[in-house]
Amino acid sequence: MSTIAATSAIPWLPTTSALVESEISLAEQIAMMLRVERQVVVLATGRDTGRMGGFLADLTHAVSQHDSVLRIKAALNSQELFAALAGQLNLPTHDLSPMQLAAKVGERLCESAPRGGFVLLCEGAHLFSAALLESIRQLSNYPINIVLCGHRPLLRRLSRSTLNQRVNYRLELDSSPLTPPLKWFVVLAVFAGLAYAGTVWLARKPTREPGAIHRISNTLDTAPQLQPSLALLPALPTLPALINNTPETDQDVVLVFDPELQRRPSQPAKP
Fold first, then answer.
1. What's phi and psi for 105, nearest 5 deg?
2. Among residues 149, 159, 199, 206, which one has the least CA distance to residue 27?
């Protein structure tokens, strides 16, 4: 089986929508493609599970018109896969080992289908384990069409799996009701609205007022003058007006209040 490169996004329209008589839905196109030859098809879409479920319902209905449909979900493991297929193929599963059960399923798939051929629809394939993908690869050896439906990470999962060699078509579905530019505009509008709401909320939040700082300030026009006691005025000698115009220094200045201390004894002249 040759591998065909992934195509561009294909829009999907539900079968319930009004279509031109000559126009068929994408699900019907895939159903017609599955009747041509045995093949493996991968359908990838975004994370819109509701619309993906609707597309799978349309695809199941379209395929069941001419072929026999088998369906599995991501909740199964490799052992439960053959048990689920045996139940849908009306095969007995009692007292059968996993290997015997897989052989019974293979023998039944080689026989003619009740209607057309067998088509296996895998739902949520992006969640399949590596062992489950390998079991599906083994099923592709039998005359059965396989359709893997999942989100876009499914394409990365298949690139690391041997099942990728069996894939015939990769279709990327555009199941979003909005065009990509409009989707980005809506996303940016939502983020801008959240940023604006956060700014308004922070602006309304009361700020913490700083505590009042009490400072002692001098309200006098001039510097306070040291006044001696009136009772000591007669006992104090007359103090000369000592005005120190020298600039202030870091050294301590000695204050002299006794005029007699200022008079130094004259030293006798040296002979």
1. -65, -40
2. 149
In this structure, are strands 40-45 and 169-174 parallel, antiparallel, or unpaired?
parallel
Neighbours of 135 (CB within 10 A): 20
Burial of 71 (0-12, 13-18, 19+ CB in 10 A): middle
Q: Is there a contact between 123 and 149 (Cβ–Cβ < 8 Å)?
A: yes
- In degrees rounded to 5, what are phi and psi of residue 41? -120, 140
**Which residue did the predictor score with more confidence, 258 or 34?**
34
Q: Tens digits of per-residue pLDDT, 133-164?
A: 999 999 999 999 999 998 888 888 888 888 99
Largest interatomic CA distance in the chain? 152
- What does the alpha-carbon distance between residue 271 and residue 268 come to, in Å, rounded to a whole number? 9
Domains detected in the chain: 10-14+27-176 (3.40.50.300)
User: Between the CA of residue 96 and those of 87, 92, 191, what are the distances in Å?
Assistant: 13, 8, 57
Q: Find where tokens 């078509």 sit.
A: 169
Q: 173 pairs with which residues across the strands?
A: 10
Q: Please tell me the pTM assigned to this model.
A: 0.58
